[in-house]
Protein: 7-cyano-7-deazaguanine synthase
Amino acid sequence: MRTALLLSGGMDSVSIAWWKRPDVAITIDYGQKPAEAEIVAAGQVARLLNTPHEVIRVDCSALGSGDMAGRAPSEVAPVSEWWPFRNQLLITLAGMAAVKSGIKRLLIGALATDGVHADGRPDFVEHISKLLALQEGGITVEAPAIELDAVELVRTSEIDQATLAWAHSCHVGNYACGKCRGCVKHYNTWSALGWTPH
Structure:
């Protein structure tokens, strides 16, 4: 069964790419501030894995909020980088691309620690998978690392440091700011693994 991965270029999706070796990697520029760096990171990892890489560009920046949109967070935001219905949007766009390629399984990079927002929880993954499966193409959505934290995922994936070093985790721009939640998570994960962050 052909599988696609939503490959953002961040540490989690890069580790899943190494671990699961999808048939296709899909990266989406939806108007987020670090889009270009994410595309470069995802593209390099896809090349290393010899995985076809598709980039989708749909500018939804006018609808974003928080760090990734370069705006103050919405009053309903659970964390500073929250973007309304982001995972729902990305899964829908990736599903549209996947139908063209005969993909039946779509993997996403949700972790146990992503439960801070509703679209990172197991029940969200279950429900959106049922929704896509109801429609033409019969695509299902899976989050293979939903029970793992970032350190556990990296260890489970057995990804090497050189490949993981390509990951771009900053939420606010194309260069690591060192301060946002994404950069802090990146640094803390590398430190917990006993590696020197790049």
